[in-house]
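User: Last request for today: this protein with magnesium ion, please.
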Amino acid sequence: MVLGIDMDDTICSTNELIIAEADQYDKEVLGGTGVKDVNAYEFTEMMGWPEGMKGQFFKDRLGAIMSRTPIKPYARETINLLHDQGWEIVIISFRKDKYLDNPYKLTEDWLNMYGVKFDKLFVNTGTKEDECIENNVTLFIDDKESHCEDVANVGIDVLLFTNEYNHKETRFKRVDNWLEIYDYIKEKYNGGKSSN
Ligand SMILES: [Mg+2]
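Assistant: Here's the final one, the structure of the complex with magnesium ion:
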């Protein structure tokens, strides 16, 4: 069986760090006062930045942010346990060349640094269902509703990892942490072990 997993805000906690860095960038580089509206859904609106500023900030800082984003509790333990039980681990990330010098290397280095076992890594993806189909993904996990929707639409089982922006979404089975993911897999797929 094959587990397809998103990176940011699924394996690691990226968004909080982006906001903290943007706050600092606004104050130190742009001479602003930091985050304007903590409750805004859109990042640009949250920062009160003009068009194009987000792209500039991402080009300047996203690589450094993503290289030190913290791993989510029990992500490594769960992924490595499932890998040892025979699951193929395929990491499917939206991280883009547009903002990062080498998103593959950056992500590979981070996974190796944390000792996360994986079989394949894709970056620069589009809507993610192509990678899921091509790699025979059994179960896909992502914090972004649109990715879950695209992958669920091709008949693949999906889990939505809770983040601060997706709490209104009700179409997908929701998980709040990696222990819940393990329980779901153990119950539904018998821990990935073959029953032959
Ligand atoms: Mg994500």
